[in-house]
Amino acid sequence: MRIKPTNRCNQNCYYCHYKNQYLELDQYHPSDEISREKMLELIQDFKDIGVKAVTFSGGGEPLLYPYIEEAMEAVLEAGIDLSIITNGSLLTGKKAKLLSKAKWVRISQESGCPETYARIRGVRESAFHELCENIRQFAEVKNADCELGVNFVVGSEN
């Protein structure tokens, strides 16, 4: 199952069809997110029907979801494989500890240098260095069977 828990995001990527709406998305609202109660109900339902894996992704940045730690714990406690697609900016602390038990973690980066990263993602250049440090630290603490990947959306900017 793929769950998009929130539409909120802490970056402003030029290619984002949610924020920049170059697609017709009449139903998209940046403030939409799954309630805590519904999220926990869904995870219990997934367990009951034998779902094998849950991936948190976006809409927005899934690690911004206010109940993401509780949701990830519930997935793991249900014996369901956990994975995430994230921009990595919040991959620290308890979130990183929980995700260290994931099947896979994919970080969207788009650039190998601060200037391009900042231009593509609509953030300050220092955010690139913070992301690299988050990746480095996560690589040190993740379980051996947790696949860590970095992906790039390739476009004219990179």
Summarize the structure in words.
The structure is a single chain. The chain is an alpha/beta fold. Helices cover 35% and strands 14% of the residues. The chain contains five helices and five strands. Strands 1-2-3-4-5 form a five-stranded parallel β-sheet. Strand 1, helix 1 and strand 2 form a beta-alpha-beta unit. It is globular. The mean pLDDT is 92.
Instruction: Determine the number of helices (DSSP H or I, runs of at least 4 residues).
Output: 5
Total beta-strand segments = 5
Beginning-to-end CA distance, first to last residue: 31 Å
Low-confidence stretches: none
- Write the H/E string, N to C: EHEHEHEHHE
Cα Rg: 16 Å
The chain-level mean pLDDT equals 92
**Reading side by side through the largest sheet, how are the strands ordered?**
1-2-3-4-5
What class would the helix/strand composition place it in?
alpha/beta
Question: Into which percentage range does the β-strand content fall?
Answer: 5-15%
Major β-sheet profile:
5 strands, parallel
3D shape:
globular
Q: Could you estimate the helical fraction of the residues in percent?
A: 25-40%
